[in-house]
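Section 4.2 – Deliverable D4.2 (structural model, holo form)

The reporting period included a commitment to supply a predicted holo structure for the target in complex with adenosine-5'-triphosphate. Inputs used:
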Amino acid sequence: MAEIEIRNIGKFFGPVEVLKDVSMTIADGEFVVMLGESGCGKTTTLRAIAGLESVTSGKILIDGEEVQDKKASERDIAFVFQSFSLYPHMTVYENIAFPLRAVRMNASDRQAAVKEVAEILRIEPLLNRKPSALSGGDMQRVAIGRALVRRPKALLMDEPIGALDATLREQMRAEIKRLHISRGSTSVYVTHDQIEAMSLADRIVIMNDGILQQIGAPEEVYLRPANLFVAQFVGSPVMNVTDVALEGGDGGASVMIGGDKQGFHFPGQVVGHLNGAPLSLGIRPEAVLLSHDAAHGAIEVETTNVEPLGSHDIVDVRVGETVLRSRTEAGFVSGEGQKVWVGLDPLQAHFFDRDSGQALRGAN
Ligand SMILES: Nc1ncnc2c1ncn2[C@@H]1O[C@H](COP(=O)(O)OP(=O)(O)OP(=O)(O)O)[C@@H](O)[C@H]1O
Ligand SMILES: [Mg+2]
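Output (structure tokens):
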């Protein structure tokens, strides 16, 4: 196990800059998940840590030692790829034992090591099979077993279960978590899937276009997004983001959306730190509160769309020129064109500098 530090790494592929000054420290035993859109640089970062790709600038340290110029084989880091990369002519046992043969471990130690990972991954009954006789989930279990068997300093996984169907992914997600808890390996895990990221990660790293946007615990990136990108990338349905104008004094302000003059009252503790720069308001659908009566601070609006989702509905309402999405109890409104009152929960509101996209935080 080891601490991994990435210090200001940059990477060009020819003229194209794909990693821009990326820095992070992954603690010993931590499970970090990298999340971001296709092409944002997740795989490149992982490959750079493993030594499968060089970096153009910056440093990579494992337990404080610079390794950016070392070969992959000298870094002692295991990598699990998305595609099943088992040796087809070997049995499961031989596949898992392969890295141990490569380091000339003796036969009895080898057997004990394979047995241990097979137990953790619950694949003991499969040890004599060939990969062609395995399901997709089992193949990926074996690939993870092969990566773990020699007790690497860290385990890097690049969408290891991305190719599996949804049910199997859910099951494997739980197993990977259990595996991490029992082995405690420093792990970096790449995924497109937010739910996977939220459920597995000690901390999530959000990347966009080669730039690290935020690193934090799952609830932190959800509740305190650092900028508009993170705010709209994390959470489903996406956070409502709209330009707003503020009017008021110390006691609070009226927050006007979509050119509507009525405004929502926000207390001073929430808006006191805002200094007159052009603002965007971010508010998640669960903080857009609908009622049938004139609740305090609410304004009367009309529904424009209802999306029934079983456990709840997503209801769109129009405020001035802006449509806000609300997560509302199932059946609360009957359809579009209905009059309702809408309020916003000021304590769940996020303000962003409209130009830079950076979150503007006060005392909260
Ligand atoms: N060997 C290469 N040569 C040239 N460009 C590359 C190479 N590998 C990656 N790229 C480019 O670098 C950028 C980052 O790629 P990377 O594979 O790291 O993205 P990713 O976040 O893993 O995406 P995905 O989610 O699709 O796997 C992309 O624009 C990609 O086209
Ligand atoms: Mg990738």
